[in-house]
Fold each of these.
Amino acid sequence: MNYVVAGYSITLGILFVYAVSLGFRRRRLARAVAAVEAARAPVTPPDPRSPQ
Amino acid sequence: MTTIAPPADPRLAEGAPATGPDGSARLRATLWTLGVLGAVSTGATVWLGIWVTPPDKVQGNLVRLVYLHPGVAWVALYLAFGLAALASLLYLWPRTRSLVWDRLAAAAVEVGVVFTACTLISGSIWGRPTWGVWWAWDARLTSTAVLLVLFLGYLALRRVPAEPHVRARRSAFAALFAAVDVPIVHFSVLWWRTLHQGATVLNPTLSPEIHGSMAWTLLLGIVALTVDFAWMLVVRYRIGLLEDRLGAEELDRAIDARRAEGGAA
Amino acid sequence: MAPAAPVPAPALFLRGAVALSGRFPLLAGVDLEVAPGEVVLVEGPNGAGKTSLLRVCAGLVPLASGTVRVLGGDPADVRTGVRRRIGLLGHASHLYDDLTVAENLRFAVRAAGAPVDGIGPACERVGLVGRLLRTPAGKLSAGQRRRVALAALVARRPELWLLDEPHAGLDASARGVLGVLVAEAAAAGSTVVVASHEPELVAPLATRAVTVAGGRVVADRATPRPVSTAGTGVADVA
Amino acid sequence: MWRDALLVGGKDLRIEARSRVALAQIAPFGMIVLVLFAFALGPDQSPLVHAAPGLFWVAVLFSTVLAVQRSVAVEAGDATRDGLRLAGLDPAGIFLGKAAAVGAQLLVLQAVLAAGVLLLFGARVVHPWLLLGTCLAGAVGLAASGTLYGALSAGVRLRETLLPFLLLPVVAPVLLAGTRLWQSSLAGGAPDAGASWMRLLLVFDAVYVALGVVVFGPLTEAA
């Protein structure tokens, strides 16, 4: 039985870790793009609800 | 208004609250629903797979891995790499050429590589008790491994810095070469030596020997993993988009700097 | 400055050309038009984009945006076969070190589909004779290699000459020969674009001078042509 | 296209004749690989004879990587890769020419290595024609896929390490088919599914030659 548990935990574990890593990569990039766009001449008035 | 993620799967916390630079409301909605659907269905598969469904007459509890391994394999081999090959073809076709396909192919390959790794791992874990070996030189296992190496090559080639369209074209070719090579490797390994019993899932009769509720769990497993794949694909695609936007921003600034270099012209 | 006669299709046409090397913009929006038979001098500081401009015209560098038409075709698209009518003399002379000069020339000329018998006279004009022809290219000096590249260019008789600092590394006699060859090519109706840091060598032949800076064309003025193009004011052949 | 192929192939072979890299360096390398295998498998004859086909084809695969890297390196000096494009040669012609040159060198290498294997490992040949056919088909497949992947990795900086990583998994079927066919053509081999293996090899050849002709142009434009 522990093979089954091992199988499930390792497989889903990898998928879960990868999913979380994707989430963080996206957030980091979103912030970087926001910073670059804000740095550019802010043609449009800065968005009051500034991104997190 | 960060959503409180159910303990089972914090992937939900991912739903970025404000409409930051990355994403219209529609995108966040789809991501959120995909995330929830994926988490719930995966949780259900685990719950059904391990506790509810009966052990198999022959394999005992080992059969529970059947709810996971074929699902992961189906997503990795056919869904992910089929999508990558298709997207590469669309990029190469002059009329439909656009970086969208390139980003989609890149996303599909990266997520596909992760799923293929899981396929190999879960396959060998299943193989250990049934065949007594961690690794068997059987046709499907080996050609999956070759596929994994081919697409690691794709990712390695993609990391080389180059102008977006040049990189896209080179990656598209690499994906096509890999896709063309997979069937050849598959047949050559198949004739070479095969241990693997018939494709339990892929045969049209959907493996009658699996008991009613087991078949449903199996289906649920496949659906769950497909939804998870979809969620990861969309997020990875967004990452590709953001990277390109970042690159474009830097490019604009580089062009301005370059022109400034040329004096007041 | 369109002449009264119907404007012949431009030998070279660039509009908003942007070319990239990785992330760095080699050209940042170049607009240029050259009519057949013109001899254009391209000036500009180092790194201004002169070499990139010539490489784009030769189809070696794809454009990120904008358009480029050379001799009516897209140079980057191999199918149009435009490249066979273009001759680029760059810093590299595209020679195979293991092959002898003669073999290199024969390969270059036959690859461009030009007749092989043009090689002999071209070599004489450029001063490649006797033993030199049989020495492997790897053993030649930089100047000699440029003479071989020049010979290949002459033997191929392209309609568009793209010369990137052709005088660099050439001795006085070779420079004289180059001047004569350019004059003959222009007289024969070919178009010549020369990027050079020694404008005084090219000026007597040039019909136009273009200044490139920061990846763009910043100045474009016609230069007063000497009365007759052939031979005058050009050092006679040593 | 064929004219350009002859031109480029001739050029590559003349360079090879002039510099003799294949014969002087790659062939001895192949022989050393064979000798190392022999050391690894021990002096007595039986395992060596059984492993002979496999060792031969692994040595051929390694030699292919070197031959392809040499073929790519020829174009690297003095921007000759640009020179080829500048001359307006038909890319399919360039592909066929370079692949043919690599293929010819492979045949020479295979001859040397085959002699080595038969002598060192004492294998006896029963069906020489099957042996020859396999080597020929294998050489074509390796040359075509090698040249293709060589072009793919040509513009890349870390080309030396990327090419083997990309190419070797792709040519695995040639290794499998080649070894099986060799086994059935040597003494004591089991000539069972020889036909199907040869068909697989020929399919591999056809796929990569066709792919090369169609794809080489846009591929090299990318660099």
Note: The first helix of chain C runs from residue 50 to 57.
Amino acid sequence: MARMKFYCDAERCIECNACVTACKNENDVPWGVNRRRVVTIKDGEPGERSLSVACMHCSDAPCAAVCPVDCFYTTDDGVVLHDKDICIGCGYCFYACPFGAPQFPESGAFSSRGKMDKCTFCAGGPEETHSSDEQRKYGSNRLAEGKLPLCAEMCSTKALLAGDADIISNIYRERVVNRGASVLDWGVSYEKASLRESRNMKGKVSE
Amino acid sequence: MNVAVRHGLIQILVVIACLLLFAGSPVHAQSSQDDKAPVSPIDVPNPGAELWNAVRERGGAEPTQQHPLTAIWEDVLQQQDTAAKSQARSADATSMINASGDQWRQLRREQLIPYGGALLLLSLAIVIGLSFVKRTAHYSESDMIIRRFKVPSLVGHWLMAGSMLFLAFTGLVLLFGRFTLLPLTGSDFFSAFASASKEGHDLFGPIFTFALIIFFFQFVSKNMLHYRDFVWMARLGGLFEKKPLKAGFFNFGEKTLFWLVIFFGIALSVSGFAILFQNLLPGRDLMLLATLVHAVSAILLICLVIGHIFMALSTKGTMDAITTGDVDANWAKADHSVWYEQMKEAGHIRKRIAHASDDAGKEIPVAEVSAEQTGAS
Amino acid sequence: MSERLEKGIQALRDKMDARIASYFSSCVHCGLCAEACLFATESQDPIYTPIYKLEPMRKVWSREYSFWGKLGAMIGVTDNVTEEDFANWETLVYDSCTMCGRCSMVCPVGIDITYMIRKEREAFVAAGYTPEGLQAATERAINIGSPMGVTLKTLQATIRSVEKETGLTIPMDVAGADYMALFSSMEIVNFEEYIAGLARIFKAAGVSWTVSSKGFEATNSGIQIGDPEAAKTIVERVVSAAEELGVKSVISPECGHAFMAIRWEGPNLIGRQYPFKVIHILELLSELHENGSLQLEGMTDTPLTYHDPCQISRRGGVIQQPRDLLNSVASNFQEMSDGGDMNWCCGGGGGVSANERADEIRLQAFNIKKKQLAELDGVETIVTACANCRLMLEDGLEHYELSHEVTGLTELIAEHIKQ
Amino acid sequence: MFTDFIDGPFWTFSVSVFAIGVIWRLISIIRLGVPGDLAVPREDGGAGGMRTILSRFMARPAVRKRALLIVVAGYMFHVGLFALLFFAQPHIDFYVDRFGVPAWAGMPRWLFILTAEIAFAGLIMAWLYRVMHPVTRMLSGIGEHTASWLVFFVMLTGCLALLEQYDSLRVLHFFLAELLLIYFPFSSLMHTFTFAFSRNYTGATMGRRGVDA
């Protein structure tokens, strides 16, 4: 079975926030909630990098471990989802998540924060696939249609990759190796990427 | 053994036991991490996994075999959130990665829940075991009573006790329910139950704080330490002596309980409000600290209260003090000799009113009283 | 069920009106009335809680006017009022309630407990559960004309003594006078200074007044014990005397319940309005002082305080007048805490003073006056406007070994008449 | 099934019992009548009645001093409950939905929570006072305790359902509120309405005598 992962290439991300917009639009995420966000370091300085961050769909997800009502589950695709009918809005998943992915839908004190919301890898939720309940609570279920999350699909620089971990690992590995090569080079710009191996071209790795 | 002495000692022992248990468990224990079988190991280089590894390494452990690709993240990781920016305005939005959440998770799952649960069960077991020990009444009843607590003090105590018990119950549901109740009841029921517990816990928290403040001011003057208390402490509460030691309104054990309740109560209140108003806290680390302080203080306080309830229920005459406010004069003489003498001097010892019925009944033999009154005239 | 019990229950049933039904429907047993009752606060015994004194009446209400009570009566679980109840509550209703009305002032839902106590006493009379002292006083009031057994001869003797002392004539049976003065027996027997003071003041103010030989007694034991018939007889005596003399106003003396009886209860007892006005002596004095016919002089600097008789201030509405009068003759008048319409009762009103059985609890309750007096700054003189209060204050002060002096307000005013 | 019953026929039943019961109780009080007063009044009785209805909302200093706890607790509970009943947004929404009345402004969420805290603390303290104070302990019967606990559980289930997500919790709250409605006319909870009658009667009598009762 595939394991779905996101990967964001810091070398490519241009902080356009299209992924954020796409996510909000596709899933009708309420105002103030960010299932995905773009973080920029060294803004305006040499070495500026941006990354698009969302739920990483961890294999050993801390959110699931701390949930007092055990509402998290991992799908066959390796997507970490939660059941909003069971969630009580305590916020422990938000504490535990290293990426700050689960979000309170509201920001008041006491119990006014509502149930947690988080990235679903555009895979809906426990409701019946493509039902209106699923759409209302979790957003769209693109995965069931054979599509990838819209954030990655929308990424203009293809910095944000989503999909089977094996495949995006390969893509990424190729990118790393190819980095710094001339785009005029046939093997770089076109399909025969394997050519560079024989040419002994070394990728620019930031070691 | 003198009751009051035993009261104090049990409480002290329970607290020490709590502290030892927690001290014995290394906070940042990573060892158990290794035993855990990964959910689904991925052999291929995996960006998510790499990032994750980086996080783990930053958690304090020695860097394991570092994949070259991880270095990409090092840049990001080293920057942390100092100079980071984001369009998102939610809490901690600029912090890309925060490893403390994972430490918190480990602490919670591997120390707090198992050891805390064990401690609570241990306290219960001690109390249940002690309840089989046969106890003889330490005083004989008389028809003279002394007013020990005024009505506002009683109300203050029970408001705090009632809200504390409710909070303890709902809090334990949230901490342990997933492992104890959930398997029994199923998700649907437990979820509604946990939600109710959480909302109730949130709402009653401030009531506990309010009660704690009132309680503190009502009782603080009686709980100031006295040289008598140091004697009490030095002679181990008279544990090995035949006659009970002198005690004022409260003995050293009771005073210890008071100050521990106040201490844990403040810890619970402060951390509780921090959790309630976490949207106002500057960062996630404080929230994590607050929940830990909250849980640890709560478990220790519950252990104390278990002992306290046991002592109150098992010691003859003690419940009278906190339900009606009046105690038998002989009870006072036996347990609080100094206070008894003071009351005696001030002429505060009075006769039990014969018709004061405890069952709120309307059948009160008025005739006797009036006969008594008219007899004099 | 014995006949007297039946009569008692029937009387309780008959007293039930919208007020009482509303009162019992509203009571949530909050216990605040106990904080206002001097018997409850001073004895610290919950049994003296005012609303608890109405338990027999509440039982009847519950059985006949409340759902659970009716249901319980039907299946036989709600117990009815018993003779034992009457016997037990007799002491509560008569010995430990002065009908001072303090509880009625603090009830958050506005229950007039005093009103109900009066009604309940009527049922106790019907059932024949009344204290001997009060019973005897009522009999004397009906047969002799005064609860203390004061006859016209006694009055005449007192009047002679007053006339000798003051050199003034007390006008007896003068038809067409403006005012007809009433006295309480205690004034005639114990405090003739009051009569003397009255004579001096009226002389100075030029008031045309008289005393009737047929109706001079102001007190009304019938009201205290709760016997409407006796009360009616006593009121009618005064009314017919006043009508015979054709006076414009009747002056109620310095006596609490007398004022209440003649001013507020009287017309309802005899079932018609009077052809004359009823005015309390303090109201009259204040009026005379204000319109200038009574000139006062000299200020005493003795620190003094005023004890409000319950039936005059709280239940009678004469609150400001005594204060105005006092302030015009005394430079150091100090108000007691809770003074005015919330003043604590002397403990002897509502027939308690006539009930020897109640002496112990009454004196215990007097402790509250002791506390009130202790708060004042150097006050050694208590002014009051009720002969009964005066007697009770003196008794209580003696019991607690206090040296305060008690005096009547009218006497004090009489001492300051401008010559 | 259960939900449908609670939210349907049982709701109609309880509201009817409440409305008919309250009106019946009030009429049966008024029907008993009040004897007239022939004494010449100092002041108008009607004005006195109105004055007392209003003035008794404030506790007299004489009793406030002596029984501060129950006075404060009483205020906390009554003011809190009133605000919760009529100005909590979920309740307003409910009234609008059930009775078709136009909506009015509710409390902001933080005030709602604060009010609930105050009402709870007040109710608990008042009940504790009831069982702790010798006077109220003696006076209180099963009726008072039933009323206190019923109100407490209605409030408690209401606050447990604060997340407004679980139908089971909402229905529990609703069900207890219906029980309270049914119990209401048969209990001293009637003081909610009869307090005005009582104060008016007392105030009118005392007002005629010129006393501000």
Note: The domain at 2-208 of chain D is CATH 1.20.950.20 (Fumarate Reductase Cytochrome B subunit).
